[in-house]
Amino acid sequence: LRSPWKFITYGLIMKSWKSTFLVICIIMLAIYFRPQSQKITSEQEILPNGAIVKISLPGQLSEIALIGESLYTVNCASCHGHNAVGQIDIAPPLVHKIYKPGHHGDESFQLAVAKGVRSHHWRFGNMPAIEGLTREDVASITRYIRELQKTNNIF
């Protein structure tokens, strides 16, 4: 006969292994989705105008994105910065992996403008609803942001 202790010990090891794997997965997800620090350390590059990220600009924007850029400049840039690079202590960058289409789809931009957003990824506070923009306006702004993201390998 086999000892029952062998099976009990094996069961505990397997249960422990599964728990360890789960903890590692949770830690990895937390690291991947953690917000960038809002404080500038001596090792970070100091960006102009309080920008949080440094981006590359597309060589050319589509017609819709050009309309979106104009709308963004008037309605969004005062908080999210010129070209969606964010502003330290004010608002997050929208050219960031947190806002890639697979995590924040285009409809999330529509909802953010229409209803505002409770702070959940960053520590800038809640975003209020933005009045005076149509769904078509927000779609153009979103297109502009997506083209910036794509140029910066966020898609």
Characterize the structure shown.
- The chain has 155 residues and is mainly α.
- The protein is built from 5 helices and no strands.
- The chain has helices spanning 4-32, 63-75, 77-80, 106-115, 135-151.
Task: Report a brief summary of the structure.
The chain is mainly α and 155 residues long. The protein has helices spanning 4-32, 63-75, 77-80, 106-115, 135-151.
Characteristics:
155 residues; mainly alpha; 5 helices; elongated
Please give the radius of gyration in angstroms. Answer: 22 Å
Mean pLDDT: 85
Uncertain stretches: 36-43
Q: Strand content of the residues, in percent?
A: under 5%
Number of strands: 0
Q: Could you tell me how far the N terminus lies from the C terminus, measured between alpha carbons in angstroms? A: 59 Å
How would you sum up the major sheet?
Answer: none
**Overall geometry:** elongated
Overall structural class, as computed from helix and strand content, comes to mainly alpha
How much helical structure, as a percent, in the residues?
40-55%
Topology overview:
Elements: H1 4-32, H2 63-75, H3 77-80, H4 106-115, H5 135-151
Helix pairs in contact: 2-5, 4-5
